[in-house]
């Protein structure tokens, strides 16, 4: 058998490094005839031990005696022995096979009849179950005698042998000169079932030990580890629990949420030997025909993960063809698994990876599986779910009227299936179609609405929720269209608005109002609650945003009719309906109703006997303050006459049960936010400021503050109240500072906490650091308190540095942000903290896993540059080294890289000509980034947004460098880079998708270049497109900031030319 044949045969190569395929030499027939077909095959062989011509393998006569002791016959063909005594077996390269000894077993295996051969295998397997453990142990002792003399056999080898005999005969081990380490790997591979079961044990110690074993196995021999998992998943005789976990671990070895970890896993997979990957794929595909639904489903997901890696690289191109080749002939459970796999693949890869021919084949299989003629509900469900994932691939099909009609008919038929899960999946497809193919929905919208109206009122909740979600998606689409294009649509508009929501309004709104009466008793206590009433209210709010004033006359009669009803459900539904429509209609349209409702709701918040009603009332008040209160509005619902009552009621409600108190905090948050632009004026909140601070702070200390997000809401409200306060209340904020600092110190001093307690402490540390950041910003900007506030800076800095010792990413982020605020407030005085802080700065720059921390740290470096100016140069060598490494790393999330380029500009501006030594590193890096940001044709919105942020970072770097060198004798060092920079500006001018921020930055660089280089750049402007056309366009801009920058740049260019 050739190595290629071995690699593709059923079975598992359990340890890739320890057990290697030994390629045979060219086959020579010494007997002048073909080798008998009845000779041992890979399926019949249980253990291919080794090549007897290798000097480290036990001589065959010893091996035979060992086998005889174990009642197992060894057939050996070597250069110095003949074949089995009763038959000639020609295999010149001499492998050893463990094989059944009894004649009946041998003869049955040799017969050509498939049935008798299969029975022989069964009989042989039964014999091996009783005898192979002894043989394997003894053979192992001889085979590994040389290694055992120095290292000893690993513990549990007998257990490994027991594991081995439990495998079907298709499993094989191939060995060749194993090392002691590889022996351990082989044992781990053979014990994988028990390890996987132990990893799910109730006993924590057993579970931890198993997890450590798995981790060690993975790190020591990844190929063997993945093969063992794939084999476990593929083996029907294995426990369901071990198979499922094996598949889950295998999937997690291919993908991760964190971008850097995902990249590592992808590279690990691509680096595996091709034969190993091929064997894993065989196991996965074979598992799709398993009777176990868990095994099939897990295999489907793993196949999709592999496809997500390989298909974009033009690898495993035969996968889709293999899956679809016989989908109509295979059993129902295999068909179900195949459809599920196709769906997962469509979820993993982008549409441009799969060619249209394969898309058509996938869609054909999926739609046929969804058809009402399909009798197997599991097949129909998997097909429907697969369509959901495949919709992004079907642009061409949805552009074809006949194909689109057929797809829509099949989906609508599925919405009336007798099976709940199929109906739910079908509505999920309709939701996705509404988002993806809104412009194609017009011929079907009436029928869909009729189906939905019946479902929402009569069907089970999971189905009804998706039916409501359809209209929410339609609202989202029409809101986006109206915001982007306005109301002017012509016949040839690319994406016209069909006003589906407005047309359906008379029937849609009453339907949604009825859903509000389907509340659940405990919905306010469950943070993750989602039911028909909540879905209906959310959809009603989106409808209000879509149609504006038109919704008010349709909703207000329901509100007025139910607001004072005895049944709490009616009162709560009326309040919820009113709160839901407060965003969208004009303040003028709502004002008459709000002014009446405000008084009623303040009373209801205190006196209503039902907590559900009070919860929704507090939420509605928050919506009133968010959308109908603020200096930008001509109409204000808060007056000197009702302000006192509003604040009194909100503060009193903060002492209510947690869910009501949390909503009251939210209402106060928006109330304070409405006064943020008061400036130096006296805020209406000033007379109540002390009481507000005290009450909200007391809420953070409540014993039940951990419920209903109350503590988090209280700190968010406290922060907003402080942020929006005026200078006259700064002394009261100053009194809050030591309280927050003492709380933070208590969390850091706490000892011997349980895991849950530690988790809560870390969360609290993040909230406290966030609060301190706001306090620092407020007190640091007030001259009345700045001096006294800085007396606390030593304590604050010490506590912040201690927070970095926690394991909470959120706490690290908040502590770093607070330090950034302290840097800004302390200015040059922050220099004394740099020797100790610098190592935490380095840690932040190297934190690729929690990339938000890295991004915030980059921002703090900018703050340091502005505060310390040239004194930051003492630390710049290390900082620049880390920043350059960050830019070069594929493990760091891409969103951090544009701020790093901006940071180069901050550093250059701070240290001036000292930046000279970094030019040879930064300029090539900037030029490389320019190439990446040059063109965005065909890119999606996210990519365009990222490219513009990258462009802005590059431009800010250039601007900072030019300004930093201005007036320096070393200015001429920048002249060689000027032509390339102008070419980059010219290329940006030719791009049509640059945003206003990039325009402003680009025209600023143009001016900085002229201002810094003077006549050294004069000749360059003569032929520069950006120096002429770009400048002219920006001078004519409606944006005052762009126009101002352009005017300054024009003067700088004129000075350079005239000079």
UniProtKB/TrEMBL annotation:
SUPFAM superfamilies given in the database record: ARM repeat
Family that this chain belongs to: Belongs to the importin beta family. Importin beta-1 subfamily.
Gene3D superfamilies attached to this UniProt entry: Leucine-rich Repeat Variant
Pfam families, sorted: HEAT_EZ, IBN_N, TPR_IMB1
The species this protein was found in: Trapa natans
Keyword terms of this UniProt record: Cytoplasm, Protein transport, Repeat, Transport
The Importin N-terminal domain, residue ranges: 210-290
Location in the cell: Cytoplasm
Any GO CC annotation of this UniProt entry: cytoplasm
Record PROSITE patterns: IMPORTIN_B_NT (PS50166)
Main location: cytoplasm
Alphabetical list of InterPro entries matching this protein: ARM-like (IPR011989), ARM-type_fold (IPR016024), IMB1_TNPO1-like_TPR (IPR058584), Importin-beta_N (IPR001494), Importin_beta (IPR040122)
Any one GO BP annotation for this protein: protein import into nucleus
GO molecular function: small GTPase binding
Descriptive protein name: Importin N-terminal domain-containing protein
């Amino acid at each position: 058998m050739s190595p290629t044949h071995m690699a593709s045969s059923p079975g598992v190569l359990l340890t890739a490094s320890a057990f290697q395929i030994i390629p045979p030499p060219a086959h020579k027939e010494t007997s002048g005839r073909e080798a008998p077909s009845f000779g041992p095959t890979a399926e019949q062989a249980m253990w291919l031990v080794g090549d007897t011509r290798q000097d480290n393998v036990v001589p065959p006569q010893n091996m035979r005696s060992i086998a005889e002791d174990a009642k197992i016959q060894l057939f050996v063909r070597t250069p110095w022995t003949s074949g089995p005594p009763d038959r000639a077996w020609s295999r010149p390269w001499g492998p050893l096979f463990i094989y059944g000894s009894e004649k009946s077993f041998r003869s049955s295996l040799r017969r050509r009849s498939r049935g008798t051969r299969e029975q022989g295998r069964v009989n042989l397997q039964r014999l091996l179950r009783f005898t192979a453990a002894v043989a394997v142990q003894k053979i192992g002792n001889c085979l590994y005698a040389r290694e055992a003399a120095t290292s000893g056999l690993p513990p549990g080898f007998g257990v490994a042998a027991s594991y081995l005999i439990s495998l079907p005969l298709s499993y094989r081990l191939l060995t060749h000169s194993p090392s002691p380490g590889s022996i351990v790997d082989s044992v781990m591979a053979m014990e994988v079932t028990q390890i996987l079961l132990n990893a799910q044990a109730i006993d924590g110690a057993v579970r931890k030990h198993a997890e450590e074993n798995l981790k060690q196995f993975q790190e020591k021999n990844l190929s063997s580890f993945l093969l063992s998992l794939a084999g476990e998943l593929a083996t029907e005789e294995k426990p369901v629990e071990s198979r499922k976990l094996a598949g889950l671990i295998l999937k997690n070895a291919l993908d991760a949420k964190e971008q850097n970890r995902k990249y590592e896993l992808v590279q690990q997979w691509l680096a595996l030997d091709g034969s190993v990957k091929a064997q894993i794929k065989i196991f996965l595909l074979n598992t799709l025909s398993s009777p176990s639904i868990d095994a099939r489903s897990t295999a489907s997901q793993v196949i999709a993960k592999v496809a997500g890696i390989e298909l974009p690289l033009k690898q495993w191109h035969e996968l889709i063809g293999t899956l679809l080749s016989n989908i109509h002939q295979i059993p129902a459970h295999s068909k179900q698994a195949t459809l599920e796999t196709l769906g997962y693949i469509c979820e993993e890869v982008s549409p441009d990876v799969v060619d249209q021919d394969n898309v058509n084949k996938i869609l054909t299989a999926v739609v046929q599986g969804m058809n009402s003629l399909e009798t197997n509900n599991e097949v129909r469900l998997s097909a429907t779910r697969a369509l959901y994932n495949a919709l992004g691939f079907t642009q061409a099909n949805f552009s074809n009227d006949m194909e689109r009609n057929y797809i829509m008919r099949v989906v609508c038929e599925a919405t009336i299936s007798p099976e709940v899960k199929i109906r739910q999946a079908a509505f999920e497809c309709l939701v996705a179609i509404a988002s993806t193919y809104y412009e194609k929905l017009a011929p079907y919208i009436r029928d869909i609405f009729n189906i939905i109206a019946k479902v929402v009122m009569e069907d089970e909740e999971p189905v009804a929720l998706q039916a409501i979600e359809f209209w929410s998606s339609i609202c989202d689409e029409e809101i986006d269209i109206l915001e982007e294009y306005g109301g002017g649509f012509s016949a040839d508009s690319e994406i016209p608005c069909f006003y589906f929501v407005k047309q359906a309004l008379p029937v849609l709104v009453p339907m949604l109002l009825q859903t509000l009466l389907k509340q659940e008793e405990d919905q306010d206590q469950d943070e993750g609650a989602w039911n028909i009433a909540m879905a209906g209210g959310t959809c009603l709010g989106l409808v209000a945003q879509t149609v504006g004033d038109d919704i008010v006359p349709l909703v207000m009669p329901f509100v007025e009719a139910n607001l004072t009803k005895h049944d709490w459900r009616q009162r709560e539904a009326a309040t919820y309906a009113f709160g839901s429509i407060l965003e969208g209609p004009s303040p003028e349209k709502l004002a008459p109703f709000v002014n009446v409702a405000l008084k009623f709701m303040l009373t209801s918040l205190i006196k209503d006997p039902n907590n559900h009603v009070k919860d929704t009332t507090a939420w509605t008040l928050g919506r009133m303050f968010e959308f109908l209160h603020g200096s930008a509005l001509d109409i204000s619902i808060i007056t000197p006459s009702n302000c006192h009552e509003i604040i009194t009621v909100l503060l009193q409600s903060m002492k209510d049960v947690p869910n009501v108190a949390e909503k009251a905090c939210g209402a106060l948050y928006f109330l304070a936010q409405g006064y943020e632009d008061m400036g130096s004026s006296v805020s209406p909140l000033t007379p109540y400021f002390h009481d507000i601070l005290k009450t909200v702070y007391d809420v953070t200390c409540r014993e039940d503050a951990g419920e209903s997000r109350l503590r988090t809401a209280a700190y968010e409200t406290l922060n907003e109240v402080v942020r929006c306060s005026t200078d006259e209340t700064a002394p009261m904020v100053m009194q809050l500072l030591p309280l927050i600092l003492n709380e933070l110190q208590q969390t850091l001093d706490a000892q011997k906490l349980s895991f849950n307690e530690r988790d809560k402490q870390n969360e609290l540390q993040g909230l406290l650091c966030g609060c301190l950041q706001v306090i620092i910003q407020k007190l640091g900007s007030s001259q009345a308190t700045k001096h006294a506030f800085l007396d606390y800076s030593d304590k604050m800095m010490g506590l912040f540095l201690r927070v970095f010792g926690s394991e909470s990413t959120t706490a690290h982020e908040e502590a770093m942000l607070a330090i950034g605020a302290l840097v800004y407030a302390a200015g040059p005085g922050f220099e004394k903290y740099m020797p100790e802080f610098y190592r935490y700065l380095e840690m932040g720059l190297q934190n690729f896993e929690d990339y938000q921390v890295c991004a915030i740290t980059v921002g703090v470096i900018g703050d340091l540059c502005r505060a310390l100016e040239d004194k930051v140069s003492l630390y710049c060598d290390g900082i620049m080294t880390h920043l350059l490494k960050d830019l070069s790393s594929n493990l760091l999330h891409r969103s951090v890289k544009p701020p790093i380029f901006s940071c180069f500009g901050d550093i250059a501006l701070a240290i001036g000509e000292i930046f000279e030594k970094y030019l040879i590193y930064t300029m090539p890096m900037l030029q490389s980034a320019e190439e990446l940001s040059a063109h965005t044709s065909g890119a999606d919105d996210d990519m365009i947004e990222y490219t513009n942020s990258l462009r802005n970072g590059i431009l800010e770097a250039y601007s900072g460098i030019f300004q930093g060198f201005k007036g320096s004798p070393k200015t001429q060092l920048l002249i060689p880079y000027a032509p390339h920079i102008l070419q980059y500006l010219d290329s940006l001018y030719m791009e049509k998708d640059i945003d206003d921020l990039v325009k402003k930055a680009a025209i600023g660089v143009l001016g900085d270049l002229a201002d810094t280089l003077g006549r050294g750049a004069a000749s360059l402007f003569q032929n520069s497109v950006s120096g002429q056309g770009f400048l002219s366009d920006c001078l004519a801009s409606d944006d005052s900031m762009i126009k101002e920058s352009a005017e300054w740049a024009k003067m700088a260019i004129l000075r350079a030319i005239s000079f």
